[in-house]
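Listing 4. Sequential folding, example run.
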Amino acid sequence: MNKQETISKVFCEIMENTVFMFGDEEDKADLAEATGETIKTEIGFNGPIKGSLTIIAPISACQEMAVNLLGVATEDELTSEQPIDAVKEVANIVIGNILTEIAGTEPVFDLTIPEVVASNKEEWDKMIDDDNVIGFDFDDEAILLDLKIID
């Protein structure tokens, strides 16, 4: 399995098993265009390999993650911080699982605290144009993921 297939497999499994959002890797040209606010999450890692994971998603996708992760009935029950915390938790789980798939269970990695920044259409478009970025469609929500490994 190549790097992109590994990332795609792990991300889809985490989304299904953790936040109950179902989807697949999608050609970025076929993804819905970002409208409104998006949330960009970055987490770094250092060990036998170094790099970072970036996830960018519409706020509505982050709210769906939070609703499903916390088991609340609707988005109306969420605080403004809970969607941000949910995507940070997803990033933590995803990078841990990707690193295990890539490097095995023996190596030790130091992870940074996930950083979240509000994002905009320009940032979304920049990631869409990046060949390293993988696009996903989860429950009609477009999500972009970028794993950068520094040599």
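-- end of first protein; second protein begins --
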Amino acid sequence: MTLLQLLVIAIVQGITEFIPVSSSAHLVLVPVVMGWPDQGLVIDVAVHLGTLAAVILYFRHDVWTIIQGGLRLIAGRWTPEARLTLQIAIASVPAFLAGFMLHEMAPTLFRAGGENPRLAMAVIAQTTLFFGLLLWAADRFRPTTRDVTEIGYGGALIVGLMQAIALIPGTSRAGITITAARLLGVSRTEAARFSLLLAIPVILGAGTLAGKDVYDAGDAQLGLDALIAAAFSFVAALITITLMMRLLRFASFLPFVIYRVLLGLFLTYYVFTLPL
């Protein structure tokens, strides 16, 4: 891969991983639209590690709270920290199960080099549109007063079940979890915070599966390309998280919805112009 390809893939991943626009869709689309070869699993693992480091750094105090909560759960102490940890665990289970069962199919169905690129693009176009409009509806018509702790374990499970749908490119893991939390009445900043914290175990799980695939393929050595990709995705993700959390203090998710609608319409047109 050229340096330009590495930088574009890393920056796109860093920007789109935690905002509600679907990073997986963009990682599929960039090689297709630019006419580049698929970046492969090694670079995918690298850019996800970069974004994982960024979210852990930004939410380092929350991560420490979750770790403390886990220790208190083990000790049988039902503190607020323990309840948050249990909510994160409950919400992560559906995505873990779905990812484990379907990860063998995903490369064939949805990567740029898959068997049916037109189908992959069509799926991304429609999920980008539909789930973007669903986010708008949830953000527009639901109250914004509840804290994450108020939705309880049942609410955490609902968010987790919705998160599992994000295995379909174009859905957006961040987008669908924020939408679910907003539908439950969680405030914008709290919904985004919960979504970003949920990203940590999900990225760890997905990275473990992808890393195993890389190892099984005999291509486990991460070279200079992967290090560059990880570094740039880290910087892009950290900047994006900081800006989004500041934006949500006084704005809605409407800018992301507008972007998704425009992108979905463009992709729908693009699908129809692809050669048969």
